[in-house]
Amino acid sequence: MTEAFFLKTSRGFASRLRLLVYRMFGMKQGSRNRMEGGGRCRRLIQIHIGDRNSFTQGCWLWPEDDNHSGVRIRIGNGNYFNRNVMIDACGLVEIGDDNLFGPDVYVTDSSHQFGEGISPKDLPMQKGRVKIGNRCWIGAKVVILKDVELGDNCVVGAGAVVTGSFSAGSVIAGVPARLLRQPAPVAAGTVSASRSGTAHE
């Protein structure tokens, strides 16, 4: 009991300190957010997050490393990001409210170009955007690629590679991700996705 209390308290202090430093360097934040260590953030002025978001161990918020006056990562309220989530933004990644991200999820709004006899690193990035709605459940190890838009209440199966957009309520899985079913609307107050195995602290 003492060990659990000490570990929880020390992680909470480190999170508050980390967010305070990020705020000092330009990250726009709401209240009651939590950000554990092991990940990285850069170009903090390009990141806006709302209230009550939880970023667990190893999460990366990674705008393109250049001088840009706008926002490249915009996150709403009440989202949970499990271990080792990376958001890689050269254009704009927008995430709504109350979404659940499993471990090792990768979200990017850009891709490398390539051509015969030319290294991809010598060509400019193709930039787009990604938009994720509200109350989506993104499974472990999902990859979400450029120009994808997911409507509210989508469920993305573990390991999926999402290359296209899907409307609200879609259940998708596979490589590339395909529509499995369009569920009926969930009544208000109904829990549609278990949060077992997550670590809200």
What attributes does this structure have?
UDP N-Acetylglucosamine Acyltransferase, domain 1, 1 helix, alpha/beta, single chain, 201 residues, disordered C terminus, 6-stranded parallel sheet, 21 strands, 8-stranded mixed sheet
What are the SSEs and their pairings?
Blueprint: H1 2-24, E1 28-29, E2 34-35, E3 47-49, E4 54-55, E5 60-63, E6 73-75, E7 80-81, E8 86-89, E9 92-95, E10 100-101, E11 106-108, E12 110-111, E13 126-127, E14 129-132, E15 137-138, E16 143-144, E17 149-150, E18 155-156, E19 161-162, E20 171-173, E21 178-181
Parallel strand pairs: 1-3, 2-4, 3-6, 4-7, 5-8, 6-9, 7-10, 8-11, 9-14, 10-15, 11-16, 14-17, 15-18, 16-19, 18-20
Antiparallel strand pairs: 12-13, 20-21
What report would you give on this structure?
This protein has 201 residues and is an alpha/beta fold. It is 11% helix and 28% strand. It has a single domain, classed as Hexapeptide repeat proteins (UDP N-Acetylglucosamine Acyltransferase, domain 1), CATH 2.160.10. The chain is built from one helix and 21 strands. The strands form four sheets. An eight-stranded mixed β-sheet has the order 2-4-7-10-15-18-20-21. It is globular and about 50 Å long. The protein starts with a helix and ends in a 20-residue tail after the last strand.
